[in-house]
Amino acid sequence: MTLHAYLKHAAFAKTITVLAFLLVAPIASVAQESPPPMGDMSIRSAEVFEFAQFTGAAVCSLAFTPDSQAVVCGLDDGRVLMLDVEDGSLIRELLSHERAVTSVSVSPGGKWIASSSRDGSVHVTDLTDEGETRSLQHSGVVHEVEFSPLGTYLASAGQARRVRLWEVATWRECEPIRGHTGTIYALGISPAEDLIVTGSGDANDPSIRLWDLHTGEQLASDFYEFQVHDIEYSPRARDRHATISSASCLMILWDVDTAAYRHLIAPYGGAVNDAAYSSMGNTLVAVCDDGRFFFTTMPHWTEKRTIDFDHPLLAVAFSSSRQYIACSDDAGTVFLIYIPADG
């Protein structure tokens, strides 16, 4: 069966055999009492806390700082907030956008925070004493902004149908990557910073594409008709694949050498809105429209653990320490999943 046929079947058929999920105990509401264990996920235990609540504003994007001590939250009212992992207190409020935040990213060294928005802007804030914020204006909605894994580049993409790149050391803008015929909704950069995977999936451009990051040359493309919600390039250099999350109710591991799917992680009960790898690349988490949080591990990516939440989940992030996972819903709640060091 081709990927195209499988995606159509998996997204709409009601009779697919669902992989066995291990459901976990209910979520604790606040952190004064020890919450119930989340269940074994190839670790001994984990705990779930209601970490932060923003009334009237959904949390659309999340990112941890490299030291795992803070969570950056992008809200649909335009705010970008940096919260302390220990107690959820506000560390810093960054320059707000005029419309919803679509993506946040922290540079590997922790110096910069970037955020993108539906207002057509990217804000980049220096977290050192200078505190400088620069605004990079775009034409149309910006759907994603991302620092490259080594911190050399900042990339952004969206309605303008091209990837814009800046050298972070000088903030010189590089030649953009052009070739998409529709909106770019997501991108992922390889650990070596030599490749970039981009995804559209709308009616004007049903595709996933692979590019040479330095030359802008398109190396491969694959047909993909569902709107791409997120692309995460595996942090393990030898893996050479990216995870594609979309409205198709499944995720695919897309091989950059063959420009074809390597593995299907399916099916889910709703669109997969966001995903994140652990820093070692052997664990993958995802969040869905049906309120489910998924955790799956190497090598087969088939055995899953889930948590059911009350509202659609929008964003997820994995700390570099691998002790915290954050996820958020459309009701403005951020949940923190704590994994003990001896787990």
Write out the strand line-up for the largest beta sheet, numbering strands in chain order: 1-27-26-25-24
Oligomer: single chain
Shape: globular
* Amino-to-carboxy terminus distance: 40 Å
Radius of gyration: 19 Å
Topology (elements, then pairings):
Blueprint lengths: L2 H10 L8 E3 L23 E7 L5 E6 L5 E6 L4 E5 L5 E4 L7 E6 L5 E6 L3 E6 L6 E5 L4 E6 L5 E6 L3 E6 L4 E2 L3 E2 L7 E4 L5 E5 L7 E6 L5 E6 L4 E6 L7 E6 L4 E5 L4 E6 L6 E6 L5 E6 L3 E6 L6 E5 L4 E6 L5 E6 L3 E6 L5
Q: What is the gist of this entry?
A:
Helix content is 3%, strand content 47%. It is an all-beta fold and 343 residues long.
Explained architecture:
- By secondary structure, the protein is mainly beta.
- 3% of the residues lie in helices and 47% in strands.
- It has one helix and 30 strands.
- Strands 1-27-26-25-24 form a five-stranded mixed sheet, with no helix packed on it. Strands 11, 12, 13, 14 and 15 form a five-stranded antiparallel sheet that branches. A four-stranded antiparallel sheet has the order 2-30-29-28, with no helix packed on it.
- The longest helix has 10 residues, at 3-12.
- The radius of gyration is 19 Å and the shape is globular.
- It starts with a helix and ends in a 5-residue tail after the last strand.
